[in-house]
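pinging the channel bc i need a second pair of eyes. not urgent but kinda urgent?? the chain im working w is below, pasted from the shared doc
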Amino acid sequence: MPKKELKSAETVGTALQEMEALSPGGDLQAYINSVHSIGILSSEEEKKLAEDLYYRNDLDAARKLVLAHLRFVIYIAKTYSGYGLSEADLIQEGNVGLMKAIRKFNPEMGVRLVSFAVHWVKAEIHEYVLKNWKIVKIATTKAQRKLFFNLRSKKKGLGWLTEEEVESMAKDLGVKPSEVREMEKRLSGIDMSFDPLSESDDEEASYAPSQYLEDVDADPAEIFEKDTLNESNATQLYEAINQLDDRSRDILQDRWLADEKLTLHELAEKYDISAERVRQIEKNAMKKVKQSFSSGE
């Protein structure tokens, strides 16, 4: 098949941006539930769709690729929580990165789309965080807001408050002394560069937020693929168990899946058979489940 360039990358991008599924604003939980109800693509299905988009400019293929990977964006966006930014906005920015990745993805690269898209998704979220992130929220509770608006005017100098001043201010504002100290620390703090400054040495650079904003011990692509595999295995397991006869299925569930697992002797009493017979039924049931897994691979 001869390689052809996309007729118009802008056309693809515009079509993707018009998809309603890429709007996590409003009811975020409903959006997340909807995304997780979308099926996961096999490697063969993904490659076919990627080829349809890359070689034939198939916008429906692009739509399917985006929808199947929205849960991946949600996973990455959650790793950037806790910085005072809307999760919906983080997801939206990640979706933009996903669309850019899909526009540039070459199915002949020999890698899964999820691995290729990691860079683009994280790059868009990083850019958004860089423009909007504050390291510390100055005032969130009623007491903190009261301190914020009064602390500066009540401080007599530029230095730290003395214990007497802290006690007096806490009494005047009706808050705890510890809250006065905490707000003083917040007001005394300064914003810092998100990325290391060009003149920073290695030690100074290590304190820049960009160095610890994400979890460097885990690759989101690998975790996503692992979670997907676990989800698939769990589905296959329950399908295999449901193919067993009622007694075999109940014995497996009571022995291995129940919160309070039963012993062989307890099951023997329950079914009025010997413990050895229960063990044989369990062994045969496990064998059938294993065979079902093998045939499904």
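so Residues 220-296 form a domain with the Arc Repressor Mutant, subunit A fold (CATH 1.10.10.10). and The chain has 15 helices and no strands. — does that match what u expected or am i reading it wrong
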